[in-house]
Amino acid sequence: MLKLRLVFFLAILSGLMACKKDSSVATIEDEPIVEETFPEDVFTVPDSTGALILTESQLALKRHLGDPNQNAQVATLITAEDLISLYPTSMGDLSLFDQGGEISESLGQPATLTRTIYRKGNNVARVNLIDTGGHPGSLLATAHWGPRGIHREAENLLEQTRTFRGFPAFQRWLPKLQQSNFEYVIDNRFVVSIQGKNIDMAQVEEIAKFLSPAKIRRLAKK
Fold first, then answer.
1. Is there a contact between 113 and 105 (Cβ–Cβ < 8 Å)?
2. Is 129 exposed, middle or buried (0-12, 13-18, 19+ CB in 10 A)?
3. Which of 93, 66, 82, 91 has the alpha carbon at shortest distance from 188?
4. Distance between CA 92 and CA 82 in Å, rounded?
5. 17-60 pLDDT, tens digit each
6. pLDDT band at residue 103, thresholds of 50, 70 and 90?
7. Closest CA to 124 of 183, 192, 191, 204
C-alpha cells in the first residue's frame, strides 16, 4: 500500500512540474535516485466520499506555511497568460528559449502552471511559476518538503530547507552533475521552481530574484 501511494504521489507531482520537451533544448539529465524513506502519513488518501484527508505530516506542512485552517477560501486562479507576462526576456546572461502555460491539476485541484526555459549554450534553467489558488492539496503536491526540516550534506549532495526572502524554500545541489533545484512558496499560494543544468546554487538564487513577489501579489489582487 505504501509503494502504491508513493507511485500515485510522484505521478501527480511529476505531471504538474513536467516541462514540455524539445529535441533542440539542452537536456537536463534525470537526477540520480537518492535513497529516502518517506513516513507513511506523508501521502494523501481519499475517504469513502472521495474527499481528501490531510495526514499529520500534511497538516504540519500547512502549519509550516502558515495556513490558519483547512477550509480557507481558495482564490480564483490567475491565467497562464498573466503569469507568463511576469517572466523577463532574459535572466542574467541566459536568454528566453521556450515558454508555455496551462491549467493543470494537483491532487485533484486545478492549478495554473507556467514554464519557461532560459539558456546560454549548455547552461540551462527551467523556471516554473505555479498558482495553486492557495488550496492546501495543491501546495502539498508541489511543496511536499515543507514539514521535513531537511539538511543533508554528502560528497555529491547538498539538500536543505531554508528561507528565501522570508518565504519557506528548499534547495538541492548535485555538484558532480552540475544540477541544481530550488523552490520557494509565496503567500501560501504561489510556487516558484527552478531546475538548473551547469548553473550553481548562487546563480539559481539570482535567477529566482527575477520573479518579483510584489508583481505576483499585484496580479493576485486584480
1. no
2. buried
3. 66
4. 22
5. 443 334 333 333 333 333 333 333 333 333 343 344 444 444 55
6. confident
7. 204
Task: Report the distance separating Cα 199 and Cα 91, nearest Å.
Answer: 12
pLDDT score recorded for residue 187: 87
- Phi and psi for 10 in degrees, rounded to 5? -70, -30
Question: 100 vs 71, which has greater pLDDT?
Answer: 100
Fold classification of 2-221 is Protein Transport Mog1p; Chain A (3.40.1000)
| % residues pLDDT > 90 (the chain) | 34
> Do 9 and 154 form a contact (C-beta atoms < 8 A)?
no
CB atoms within 10 A of CB 45: 12
**Which residue's C-alpha cell is 495554473?**
112
Query: What's phi and psi for 53, nearest 5 deg?
Result: -105, 120
